[in-house]
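[09:14] KT: can someone run the structure on this one? pasting the chain below
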Amino acid sequence: MQQLDRGIFYEDTYLGTTLGALVFSHGTIMIDAPLRLEDARSWRSTLLNQRGGGSRLLVNLDAHPDRTLGAKTLDCTIVAHQKTAQVYRNRPTIFKGQNTPTGSAWESYSESIGMRWAPPDITFTNRMSLFWGGPEIALEHRPGPMAGSIWVIISSEKVLFVGDTLTINEPPFIANAELSEWLESLEYLANNYGSYLIVAGRGGTATKKEIVFQVQTLKLVAKGIEKLVKRNAGPEATEELASQILKEYSIDRDREEFFLQRLRYGLYQYYARHYRPSSSLEPAVVEEVEE
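[09:31] RB: done, structure tokens below
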């Protein structure tokens, strides 16, 4: 666990997403949940040793299974955006996985199948503030990777958790994305939080370099999709685009196929959802909500 400021921590060694924790006199606010049961136990024990107040709260930065499957094991009140809560209307009580690999962390954890979802208890639309015996903690809606994506902002300490708006040294998840909103969120991030410590959803802390690279990647995706649309290509044509995008990353060979599959799946689903809505989609992960 790495300390960013007094009472503000992140953890990026567990399977799944980068976790956050805000430990103040009223209690602990956890940002996203460990995927594995053993990691959840370790995380709770680590945070108890910080000796904050007795209350606990979990914030889910979006609806992705990597950050929400383990929520129930933390046994506390859950806060998320209302569009994240809407996703649970289409989810069964028990997670059953899906047939097509998505390049997600949960796929390497066999015990994820059969885990029970824990829907949010508290939701909001645009902005929500929390006061837990420390500085103000703001939750803000910043769509892009998913309709209900949010950021956690501690302005007085200049710390910001942005979830999958940023992924470091690995390709982004495209399946549920809205690219225009995502690029707007990244532009807002670059223009307004240059002096902040930024914690990415995967990979730990980020710099301006990672923001610029993410923007370039999404623009490459948008340009590639536009060319396919002009050709009136089918969703299967996105496979070549996935290979082109992966070449922009310096990835160990033993992880190449995993991340290539993430891009293949994500681009296919994105293209089919926007330009071939009658195509077959994987409903277990592609979870849209009404505007």
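[09:33] KT: thanks! The mean pLDDT is 91.
[09:34] RB: yep, looked fine to me
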